[in-house]
Specification:
Layout: E1 5-10, H1 14-25, E2 30-36, H2 39-49, E3 53-57, H3 65-79, E4 85-90, H4 96-103, E5 109-111, H5 116-127, H6 135-143, H7 155-158, H8 162-172, H9 177-184, H10 188-202, H11 207-216
Parallel strand pairs: 1-2, 1-3, 3-4, 4-5
Length: 221
């Protein structure tokens, strides 16, 4: 079996932590490596346990999940090692705090009452390098809150080819690789290559950050 995915959890509810630990530990491809009860403890846990994926509650005492997410990713960048993927957990479907966490580097968000199988699938999906929520859900989140859209197109965006810009816009609208392939008369493998190049040129980690970039800079049309 390939190396197991290391999972950490930051949440202030002890009963919830116990449930998640048991759920994760029941999976042969996952390893529960650490937990914390607030954002400050979460930073320490991330530095010592080095999880691949962190489930991060948003609302906690001492330090919330938004600040903790930013600090964990910044610390990982300073170490020069791989950055953990962070999934923020929220009670509300359209939550401005979740939007802020995504802006801060989280790879997506889940409702805390999500089905266990969906949460497990989300961990695996994020570890594989993609977001855990449909881009359309992220778009809905952004459309419900002020995103302070920029009026100047970033220089990095102008470095994209015409084809890459077209694919960028379709991805920002929430289309899957297969849907983009159909719209652009390309193979899915070619679309995947284009998406990787777009992310690289824009300095973005995944499609969630692509959607954030698109909405912050008014590039969704």
């Amino acid at each position: 079996m390939s190396e197991r995915i290391r999972v950490g959890l930051v949440d202030d509810q002890a009963l919830f932590r116990t449930g998640i630990r048991m759920l994760v530990s029941s999976q042969p491809d996952l390893e529960f490596v650490g937990q914390a009860g607030n954002g400050v403890e979460g930073i320490a846990m991330a530095a010592t346990a080095l999880p691949d994926v962190i489930l991060m509650d948003i609302r906690m005492p001492v330090m919330d999940g938004i600040e903790s997410t930013s600090e964990i990713l910044a610390a990982a960048a300073r170490r020069g090692g791989p950055q953990p993927r962070i999934i923020v957990l929220t009670t509300f479907d359209l939550d401005e705090a979740a939007m802020r966490a995504i802006r801060g580097g989280a790879s997506g968000f889940l409702l805390k009452d999500a089905d266990p199988e969906f949460l497990l699938a989300a961990i695996r999906t994020v570890h594989a390098g993609t977001s855990v929520i449909a881009a359309s859900a992220t778009r809905e989140l952004f459309e419900n809150f002020d995103t302070h859209v920029a009026t100047v197109v970033p220089e990095s965006f102008e470095k994209l080819t015409s084809r890459e810009k077209d694919i960028f816009v379709l991805a920002a609208r929430g289309l899957s690789n297969s849907e983009i392939a159909t719209a652009e008369f390309l193979s899915e493998a070619t679309v995947k290559t284009h998406i990787s190049r777009v992310l690289g040129k824009l300095g973005l980690r995944d499609r969630v950050q692509l959607v954030v970039f698109a909405y912050e800079n008014g590039l969704t049309d």
